[in-house]
Design brief:
Rossmann fold; eight-stranded mixed sheet; seven-stranded mixed sheet
Length: 528
């Protein structure tokens, strides 16, 4: 019949509250009972009804955004298009074989399938001329439902109806993981690296000329080591050579450096993330770079369809024929434990190659300009930073970073006026981030501009959300903003504020002698 029993409806509501569906498929629309009972704002309902007279009789087109008038067994429902599919009082109207085929299609189309079906002996014939209302199968029970349709996620029998929740069948195909890296004289890292990757099916290391025990230790730890030669040197070609050496039957490739480690449970999390969508090609997850900096990482990708790009600060990019599907988690899955003594000498030359190869790439332009600041070449850095800022399609946080660097460069060449101009522009570019306010506060402190020192440090501390981006400066999130606000407040004779901020600064750096002395000094100001 076009109307269904009210039995089991509260059980359905309980599950819908958990699922919070947005796109819903209703098989056997009948009188449109499902959207009448369960519709909430913002949902999109698709109905399927085989008996055309019901369309006008029950005004079904007003109940569904999409209405398909067709036998449910012949409809193509696609894959992953719906959050929930209802099959309420439907499956008993067809043979077991037809019901199984329909359920298989619904479980591919929706995350959850909710089935209502009469329990026990419940015969029914045609109704008001509708032959599809006849019950073809009978004597259903929870055991029979599971036998016909597979594992049940949850169910409840409220006579005369049983309500059953099914989820999408898990893909039990084993995914093969390959962790791959390049190396040169990294014997201090290789054992730690291999141990962190021990759950991978393959650990592949392309060595570029080690003269220490890197290769020996790697082999002892179960890695497959290949020797490659890249001349003249560039990171992207070395990475591509390493990727080419990954066995062809690997499904997922995790690109790392030897001074990086995978966190405990990485494989389970990556596999779950990979399977969370259809045709996944890349993962995005948290990366702890060290020194208090964390950002998103995207160096785990499918075995086919990717290659590394850029001579330095290389990055895997999709082949133009690859349709990228990225799954994302905020969880940190990779940590960086670098060697602080390692030279960056080769970076400058390689970044010069990068900007010559692709002079219109903002990414290359910024990294090149930043490297000039690291190498103590402020005049060249100023020119390069301004060139970057003139480029289209740049990112506000990175533009702000470039302006902060311009402030430092002008400070280094004793042009205080220009330096302050750029710090103010940095604040205007990304006022929602702490870093430019912190830089402005510090620059103002050096100029003994106590009003701006206090104001900028106050604005800095008002920002509580720390973005997971590489432009983050850990100093802006430590004790220094409190120290700067305390100093500014003291000079403005706001002694109570100075004491409070002095306490906050000392709490974050309890061993700092100067901060303790400053706090004592502030307290004297309060008492006078």
């Amino acid at each position: 019949m076009p109307f269904s029993s009210g039995a089991g409806k509260e059980f359905i509501r309980e599950h819908l509250r958990k699922i919070q569906p947005k796109r819903i498929l209703d098989i056997g629309a009948g009188a449109g009972n499902m959207p009448k009972r369960y519709r909430t704002n913002g949902q999109h309902w698709t109905g399927v009804e085989v008996w055309e007279p019901y369309v006008e009789q029950y005004k079904l087109r007003s109940q569904y955004q999409v209405l398909v008038v067709q036998d449910a067994r012949t409809v193509d429902y696609g894959e992953d298009l719906y959050d929930v599919a209802f099959a309420g009082d439907v499956l008993e109207h067809m043979t077991y074989a037809d019901a199984q085929q329909l359920m298989a299609k619904l479980r591919r189309a929706a995350r959850y399938v909710i089935v209502s079906i009469p329990m026990g002996n419940y015969p029914q014939g045609a109704y008001e001329g509708n032959p599809y209302e006849e019950h073809i199968t009978n004597n259903w029970s929870p055991k029979e439902v599971e036998h016909q349709f597979g594992q049940i996620h949850d169910f409840k029998v409220t006579p005369p109806v049983g309500t059953f929740i099914f989820t999408r069948p898990e893909d039990t195909t084993k995914l093969k993981f390959a962790v791959y890296a390049i190396s040169k004289n990294e014997e201090q890292f290789v054992e730690r690296f291999c141990n962190s990757a021990k759950d991978a099916d393959y650990i592949v290391i392309a060595d570029t000329g080690s003269t220490d025990k890197t290769c020996l230790i790697a082999k002892e730890c179960g890695a497959t080591v290949h020797h490659i030669c890249i001349k003249p040197w560039r990171f992207d070609l070395a990475r591509n050579a390493a990727l080419a050496l990954v066995p062809a039957d690997a499904d997922i490739c995790v690109g790392l450096d030897l001074d990086e480690v995978l966190v405990e449970g990485w494989r389970e999390e990556m596999e779950k993330l990979w399977r969370s969508g259809k045709n996944t090609t890349r993962l995005r997850y948290g990366f702890d770079w060290g020194h208090g900096i964390k950002f998103a990482y995207e160096k785990t990708h499918a075995r086919a369809g990717y290659l590394w790009h850029h001579p330095c600060h290389e990055y895997p990019i999709a082949d133009p024929r690859t349709v990228e599907v990225i799954q994302t988690t905020d969880k940190t899955l990779v940590e960086h434990h670098p060697d602080p003594t390692k030279s960056r000498a080769q970076y400058m030359e390689l970044l010069e190659v990068s900007v010559k190869e692709d002079p219109y790439c903002p990414r290359n332009a910024f990294y090149y300009a930043r490297e000039l600041t690291y190498n103590g070449r402020p005049h060249e850095a100023i020119e390069a930073l301004k060139k970057y800022l003139a480029m289209p399609k740049t990112w506000a946080n990175e533009r702000c970073y470039a302006m902060r660097l311009l402030g430092k460069c002008y400070g280094e060449i004793n042009n205080s006026h220009e330096a302050m101009q750029w710090y103010h522009r940095a604040v205007a570019e990304a006022p929602y981030t702490r870093e430019p306010w912190f830089e402005l506060a510090f620059a103002s402190y050096l100029k003994k501009d106590w009003t701006t020192t206090y104001m900028a440090a106050t604005k800095c501390l008002e920002i509580g959300r720390r973005e997971a981006v590489y432009t983050c400066d850990p100093e802006a999130w430590g004790w220094k903003p409190h120290d700067l606000r305390a100093i500014g407040a003291y000079h403005l004779k706001m002694y109570d504020v100075a004491v409070l901020e002095g306490i906050a600064a000392l709490a974050a750096a309890p061993d700092d002698v100067r901060l303790k002395q400053n706090l004592d000094f502030y307290k004297k100001g309060v008492s006078t």
